[in-house]
Write a structure and sequence with these properties.
By secondary structure, this protein is of the alpha+beta class. It has a single domain, classed as PH-domain like (Roll), CATH 2.30.29.30. Helix content is about 25%, strand content about 30%. The protein is built from five helices and seven strands; from the N terminus they run βββααααββββα. The chain has helices at about 85-100, 105-115, 115-125, 130-135, 185-195; strands spanning about 50-60, 65-75, 80-85, 140-145, 150-155, 165-170, 175-180. A seven-stranded antiparallel sheet has the order 4-3-2-1-7-6-5. β5 and β6 (about 165-170) form a beta hairpin. The chain is globular and about 55 Å long. It starts with about 50 loop residues before the first strand and ends in a 6-residue tail after the last helix. Residues about 1-5 and about 30-45 have low confidence and may be disordered.
Length: about 200
């Protein structure tokens, strides 16, 4: 999910005037990146959120059965991997259900709305200052955009189940970060290519 208006330098995060060919701060070739809508509550001089990619899982343990869920929040300066605890997930599910109930949805409508819990969290991020996200979501961490080397995607189909698994690997100066995507890798690649074109493959 991205916001539709102002442009910022993908290298250093400086605002780009309309029609600029190069960033006045770092000299990087200007590339228009959608960031803040005119209705966004974030101040114009604040660090803007460029896009949000929900549903990343870091798997560990025997056969990768242990999973930690993250939502990727992208700003011109850093990637924020916002941790999603089981408690937070339950709260978002309940909020999605209550919103549907408040809109007059019946039992089936409320049940279906529960699966839109990620959208509830996305709306919460859009309303927050990025500096408040880390302390409010324990287990979160950041990666500076300037230290990113490559973001790559792959998919494979399990021979037994026939299910397709989508993966994303973020390579940075600090190491490699591997995630399983709950959505399709093509959709994630398209989103990342819009906001981080130099490192997305």
């Amino acid at each position: 999910m991205t916001h539709p208006n102002a442009a910022f330098c993908v290298q250093c995060g400086a605002p780009l005037p309309a029609g600029a060919r190069f960033c006045a701060r770092c000299g990087h070739e200007a590339q228009s990146v959608s960031t803040i809508s005119t209705t966004s509550p974030v101040a114009a001089d604040a660090e803007p959120i460029l896009a949000i990619l929900s549903g990343l899982q870091r798997r560990s343990g025997f056969l990768g059965l242990k999973a930690q869920t993250f939502n990727l929040i992208i700003t011109p300066r850093r990637l924020i991997l916002a941790a999603v605890s089981p408690k937070l997930m339950k709260e978002a599910v309940a909020q999605a259900r209550d919103q549907a109930k408040g809109q007059g949805a019946g039992f089936l409508g409320q049940w279906a709305a529960q699966f839109r819990w990620m959208g509830v969290l996305e709306q919460r991020y859009w309303q927050m200052s990025v500096d408040d996200i880390i302390p409010q979501f324990p287990g979160s961490f950041t990666l500076p955009v300037a230290e990113l080397r490559r973001i790559s995607f792959s998919s494979y189909e399990d021979d037994e189940s026939g299910q397709e698994t989508h993966r994303m690997v973020i390579e940075a100066n600090s190491g490699k970060y591997r995630f399983v995507l709950t959505g399709k890798s093509d959709d994630a690649r398209k989103l990342l290519s819009q906001v981080l074109p130099e490192v997305t493959r």
